Amino acid sequence: MFKGFSSLRSKINLVFSITLLLLAVLFISSIKYDHMKFEEHNEAHERLITHYIYNYYMLHGTIDEAYLESQNMFLVKDKAKIVQIEHALKPHNKDKRYVVDTFKLQRIILINNDRFKLILENKNKPKYPLKRIIVFSLVFMLIIMLYLWVVRSLRPISELKNKIKTFSQGNLDIQCASDRDDEIGEVANEFDHAVNMIRELIQARQLFLRAIMHELKTPIAKGRLVSEMLSDEKNKKRLHSIFERLNLLIDEFAKIEKITSKNFELHLKSYKASDLVEGSIDLLMVEDPARYITIDIQKDYMLQADFELMTLVIKNLLDNAIKYSSDKHVNVRIENDHIAFLNKGEMLNQPLEHYYEPFHTSKNSLGLGIYIVKSILDIHHMTLAYSYEEGNNIFTVK
Fold first, then answer.
1. Helix (H) or strand (E) holding 303
2. Which of 166, 178, 207, 283 makes the best surface tag, with the fewest CB within 10 Å?
3. In what helix (H) or strand (E) does residue 138 lie, and over which residues does it extend?
4. Can you give the pTM of this predicted structure?
């Protein structure tokens, strides 16, 4: 019933709306009650006046018009108006001796007895409830001011929420410090402190990783220079391949560091799935790829992707499939809207979600492959699925 009022602002709006509604109901009810009491008092007053006029007439044989005027009641003497009033009242009040009705928004009293026949206009009106209107207006304004004050007090929460959202998207250059002395200010200051700590940790990690990668680049470059001095072309080529592989791994680590710190800008373009697979095979840097990989294109399709990152995804899936297959072979199937990687081997002993964690328990591996794949697919809004059929592990990118 109250699902639409889950937010704090909605609850406050609901409370103040109900308060204002109850205030309006109370105001209208009080006006109606006053009107009802006036009507009761007016009817009793009219009967007393009628009784007085009758007694006065019996004593003096005339109507005391001065008394009527003092009671703000007047005798209708205009014959044309009398005819109109009688014509208007007669159908509803035929043969009645005492009639109280309304004629042209004016309260009319018809007295018809064996002594006289009179038509009186009662010009008494209920008093304008000025005091009550002033009181209710002040209460209404007070409630509105309280509402605006409360809503204004909540505004920093909205600002803090937007900053948290910005922070979650990878922007660490935010300031949340507040000079408020309430609980909202305390939360904002604590979050600002946490942001500063996280920013310092990330910067320290980035500096550490970059220093390591820089230091690794130097021996790799030296190794490549030394390998150029070898006379054996076969060994020279093999060393070139090894150093190129190491250099490529360092570049991949740099990309991974940017991805995991959400400091990477996507360059999305349309690519054929088959082209992405071919580009990934090149990254594997294996001799005779056809011995390890079979590509089955049942229906090629286009997808929006960052070429460098998506080829890194496919390369990791190919690498894992070859490494953990019983026959060191992987079948890649491209069909409609997905790419499937099939390799023979034992079924995973843990749910796929377990392998999303970095440095999970894994044989002969740091446990980063699936973690990297999941991180890149998330920013592409793609998914990775796993199934086991007829002795084949099947990983599917959708």
1. strand 302-306
2. 207
3. helix 130-168
4. 0.48
